[in-house]
Amino acid sequence: MSKEVTANNYETTPTSSASDWLANMPEEIRKAESLGKFKDVSSLAHSYLEAEKSLNQRVAVPKDDSSDEEWHKFYCRLGLPEDKRYTDKRSKEDEEYLTRYEDMFYQSGLSKRQGEKLLNSLYGFSQDLQKQQQNAIEQTRHSHIGWLKNTYGEGFDSKMTVMQAALSKFGTKELAELIEDSNYSPALVDLLVRVGETLKSDSLVTGKELPAINSREAALSEIEKLDSDPEFVVKLRTKDHTGHDQAVKRMQQLYKIAYDKER
């Protein structure tokens, strides 16, 4: 039978079985069961190279007392973004918000994948929170107006007219915003109604200029003035606004003066 000499100087025969390459190995090596799965030295060498490659790809976790630089290198191998950007979905309005969170994620060593998932979760939470807050505002506003209607009964519209008149005559922009922000708080509205009723007069309720408008030209001028008043336009066009009825009535009076042919 012919013999061949391997690179490791172990004799083998072409007709030897898959495990015969172990025959000439030292006994302690032959006893290793894990080597039995290799049919020849070539397959063993290939497995060794793959194992070495895998070991080189492993990332050693730094110890607690390791330097910041070592931890930074560790995080970089895990996917820490070099540009500190964790998402490409950004707008000019969101930039400040995103930059703040991205810097925090970067300092914490989060990979881009981790940071992006976290940003998506935070965005979803923020959207849900805004919806809840808006629903709460609408419910509060509805509840307040409902309470006022129930309290004032049929006099609700006239009470709101008095309040709006008092606010227009004696109030400020800040006070008007406060009423809106409080969603027409009953206590605040009732206070203004009481102030208006205390000082009530025709000029307060209907507006000090309206009774003096008796000519077509003056009425047209007043209509033009009101059409350019953003606050008045909101009242006129928003049916559920507490000042809507008063605004409609005022415009009807002005149009009657301006276009009534019988005058």
Summarize the structure in words:
With 263 residues, the chain is mainly alpha-helical. Helix content is 62%, strand content 2%. The chain has 12 helices and 2 strands; from the N terminus they run ββαααααααααααα. The chain has helices at 27-30, 41-57, 68-77, 95-107, 112-152, 156-170, 173-181, 186-198, 202-206, 216-227, 230-237, 244-259, and strands spanning 4-5, 11-12. A two-stranded antiparallel ribbon has the order 1-2. A hairpin with a 5-residue loop joins strand 1 and strand 2. Helix 6 (156-170) packs across helix 8 and helix 10 packs antiparallel against helix 12 (244-259). The longest helix is centred in the middle third of the chain and has 41 residues, at 112-152. It starts with a strand and ends with a helix. Residues 1-22 are annotated as: Disordered.
Task: Provide a brief overview of the structure.
The chain is mainly alpha-helical and 263 residues long. Helices cover 62% and strands 2% of the residues. The N terminus is likely disordered.
- Average residue-wise pLDDT: 80
How much helical structure, as a percent, in the residues? 55-70%
- Give the helices and strands as they follow along the chain: EEHHHHHHHHHHHH
Number of strands: 2
Low-confidence stretches: 1-8, 10-16, 202-210
β-strand percent reads under 5%
Side-by-side strand order of the widest sheet: 1-2
Count of individual helical segments: 12
Largest sheet: 2 strands, antiparallel
Radius of gyration: 42 Å
Taking the alpha carbons of the first and last residues, their distance comes to: 135 Å
Shape: rod-shaped
Structural class: mainly alpha
Region (Disordered): 1-22
Biased composition (Polar residues): 1-19
